[in-house]
Amino acid sequence: xxxxxxxxxxxxxxxxxxxxxxxxxxxxxxxxxxxxxxxxxxxxxxxxxxxxxxxxxxxxxxxxxxxxxxxxxxxxxxxxxxxxxxxxxxxxxxxxxxxxxxxxxxxxxxxxxxxxxxxxxxxxxxxxxxxxxxxxxxxxxxxxxxxxxxxxxxxxxxxxxxxxxxxxxxxxxxxxxxxxxxxxxxxxxxxxxxxxxxxxxxxxxxxxxxxxxxxxxxxxxxxxxxxxxxxxxxxxxxxxxxxxxxxxxxxxxxxxxxxxxxxxxxxxxxxxxxxxxxxxxxxxxxxxxxxxxxxxxxxxxxxx
Length: 304
Hints:
Number of domains: 2
Oligomer: single chain
Distance between the termini: 60 Å
Structural class: alpha+beta
Number of helices: 10
Strand content: 5-15%
């Protein structure tokens, strides 16, 4: 698709309040950053300015000037960050092989699920994907927990994208297959029965977040740093908790690399903080490991 058409589409999405970011041309992968958190050296100008790895979600924007600068340069695809856009997108796939039957069609699975809840699939903003699947866009509930991505939670061939996830937006192509608007209307509110099924399980009671540190001057400094980073995580708003945990892990990773804090202590206290904040254990583990690794590239020593 011509660069001008992609720019027009990106600006149109942003005008709806949807946060967009560039994808590699004719591809699903983000164009920026071109590295993972584990490989972040801090040389990328935006990572350097932020003081930590800056992924695609915080780079997503509605700013028309930034969008024009990006899409005037290359025919980037359009990624749409669901969390900042306050969207939940239901991704309905289609069978990819001849051996699969219509029973596994995502749209049929969702229709059966709706019928089981004596509901129907109300009209909402709808995109047909490059492979003939369907993206149903819904408004994220104003109340209740922040919803995350799911894969198969609702049934086979049905995934969802919310906080921490993105979709390829209409106007883009992937492998020369276009994503097109099938129904151009405002996204409907996420149905209550869907919100109920997608809500994360309640957290079990958590142990206090504690770590044993020396009582000398260095220990007091490190203890204050640990407390500050734990507070950053546990007070983060829904949708910002994973990012807050990563930033905290980078900060404590610098102290670990400088010899002021043990790796096990940092990892334990951060994982506890992440789970206390509402993240899944596996998600907190991955984020902490990634942040500690990034922080290790920039050691911070504490004078005694």
